[in-house]
Design a protein that fits this description.
The structure holds 2 protein chains of 2 kinds. Chain A has one domain. In chain A, 75% of the residues lie in helices and 0% in strands. In chain A, helix 1 crosses helix 6. The radius of gyration of chain A is 19 Å and the shape is globular. By secondary structure, chain B is mainly α. Chain B has one domain. The two termini of chain B are 30 Å apart. Classes of the chains: A mainly alpha, B mainly alpha. Chains A and B meet through helix 2 and helix 8 of A and helix 2, strand 1 and helix 9 of B.
């Protein structure tokens, strides 16, 4: 894509960042909740490690702490919970305005979402990690390949997450109330993505099922890089898989959008 | 106003809410199923944990399932009846809370009946199913007292969670992001109450036993059902005390709510 074509995308990303940065109290409240849940989750996982004799599925106390606090810090960043903004625009009909704009709909929403994610990283990820470091101590990764790949992996995680949410929200073209579908999506993606409990701890059938979905690519993969679960070539392979998922899912989203807009009738006024 | 008239008023409000929710049938059905599914997905955490170890905090799979079943049933009932109280900040922000103050019914009663969410029935049904399975799986030395306890426990637990919902929703009178803060105690309390308290640190344990008393929802009654002393040394009679604790929690939470209500001055116009 040529550089001028990316200019509106950059502007939209900036707008997404600024828009969310207005809500500071929301960020404080969000961090507080993420930390409370992190304490509960980590207590349970440490209980498991203790019963298992110190190490469970390759995690020790320090790497479980890193798992938990990175996972909690990523909640807002990759939007692990409900996101229905696009669906609401479809339901209210505002989507017609978006479609009339001289920018690609998916690219515009992706750019806005990347801006939002940037703000989320600053406002929602640092404090849970700092809390974890001070109260529990963290495992610090030492594999150079894995460390270098972290930024790319985080970016890919957001894109994969966006592509999924984009497609799920477009269901609003066919269903008036998407709350149920979105709730279903949040549950399945959170569990299979490794947000509740690390994918490595799953029994084999559930792990196989999880890796057949894009969900580990939006949560577990970046965590694997910083907990020492994935190093060297394996880390590289996992990040490549994330990129493949990102491309495939963005493509699938475009197909759904094409089907949806064929169905759309805009009433004039 | 006569009590009968008040009851009729609340009855019509609740019925109108139910009718409204059931009108989008496909979505309503998906939401009921999703709510039931939430329980199974959350239970996956217990399932995965016991795939790795035989005991968690000194308790077996069946014993933790018992705690989980009680906690989910209790929370399910509370969530069905008062779960939307955390939406108070939205009413305050839009100024629609003022309408509650003008009508000859209690503001709390109106808020409770304003968004009675029937879809949450899915969670209650699954919760009781898990509880039934757990009761078959665990080894209980049945006495009249324990039989009464097992019937009363989910209801007392529901009362305790409801009190937490009422008290924490009052945060919304002071803080715009009250919903998030309230969720740390309501949903956080739900999450934590399903696990043996032996895995939690002292601060967390004391906080969720004496201040936000969710230890009395499932963990302590389970000890009484199983005939086990508290490994952490709480006296045995506390395990039978869920009902008086629920009463005290309700008195306290109504007092907190009233304080919040007195503080409320409206959004202005």
């Amino acid at each position: 894509m040529s550089l001028p074509a990316l200019r509106p995308a950059a502007a939209l990303a900036g707008a997404g960042f600024r828009r969310w940065s207005t809500y500071r109290q929301a960020a404080v409240a969000g961090v507080f909740v993420n930390i409370v849940f992190g304490v509960i989750k980590l207590s349970i996982l440490l209980g498991v490690a203790e019963s298992a004799g110190g190490t469970v599925a390759g995690y020790d106390a320090a790497s479980l702490s890193t798992y938990t606090w990175v996972a909690q810090g990523m909640i807002a960043f990759v939007v692990i919970f409900s996101w229905t903004e696009l669906a609401e625009r479809v339901t209210t009909g505002d989507i017609a305005v978006d479609l009339a704009r001289p920018v690609d709909l998916q690219l515009a929403w992706l750019a806005t979402d990347l801006g939002r994610a940037g703000w989320a990283l600053l406002s929602r990820a640092i404090l849970p990690l700092a809390f974890g470091a001070v109260v529990y101590g963290l495992y610090v990764p030492d594999d150079p390949t894995a460390i270098v790949l972290v930024p790319l992996s985080l970016l890919a995680a957001v894109v994969v997450s966006f592509a999924c949410r984009f497609a799920v929200n477009l269901v609003a073209f066919w269903l008036v109330e998407v709350r149920g579908i979105v709730m279903f999506y949040v549950l399945v993606s959170g569990l299979l993505g490794g947000h509740l409990i690390p994918v490595q701890m799953f029994p084999e059938w559930l792990r196989t099922l999880a890796y057949a979905t894009p969900f580990p690519a939006m949560i577990q993969t970046p965590i694997d890089l910083v907990t020492g679960q994935a190093t060297g070539l394996r880390a590289l392979g996992l990040v490549l898989a994330q990129l493949v998922w990102a491309v495939v899912l963005l493509g699938a989203g475009r197909l759904v959008l094409a089907g949806a807009t064929r169905k759309l009738v805009v009433q004039g006024g | 106003m006569a009590d009968a008239t008040v009851a009729t008023a609340y009855r019509s409000i609740v019925l109108s809410r139910v009718a409204a929710q059931a009108s989008y049938r496909t979505s309503f059905a998906i939401e009921v199923v999703s709510q039931a599914f939430i329980v199974l997905v959350e239970f996956a955490e217990v399932y995965v944990v016991f795939h790795q170890v035989d005991k968690l905090g000194g308790f077996s799979y069946a014993e933790v399932t018992l705690m989980y079943g009680i906690a989910v049933s209790a929370f399910g009932i509370a969530d069905l009846v008062v779960g939307h109280l955390d939406q108070l900040p939205f009413y305050v922000r839009r100024g629609t809370f003022d309408a509650f103050l003008l009508r000859p019914l209690s503001p709390l009663g109106q808020l409770v009946t304003s968004d009675f969410s029937l879809r949450r029935v899915g969670r209650v049904v699954t919760g009781f199913t898990v509880l039934a399975v757990a009761l078959v799986a665990v080894d209980i030395d049945w006495t009249a007292g324990r039989l009464l306890l097992v019937v009363v426990t989910p209801l007392a637990g529901a009362a305790i969670f409801s009190a937490v919902f009422v008290a924490t929703s009052a945060i919304g009178f002071w803080v715009v992001e009250g919903t998030e803060f309230a969720n740390a105690f309501t949903y956080g309390g739900n999450y934590l109450s399903a696990f043996p308290f032996t895995v939690f640190g002292t601060v967390v344990r004391r906080f969720f036993t004496f201040l936000v008393p969710v230890a009395f929802v499932a963990y302590l009654p389970s000890l009484a059902l199983l005939g086990r002393p508290d490994p952490l040394g709480l006296p045995g009679w506390l395990s039978w005390s869920a009902v008086p604790v629920a009463v005290v929690a309700w008195i306290a939470s109504v007092a907190v709510w009233r304080t919040g209500l007195r503080h409320y001055v409206g959004a202005g116009s």
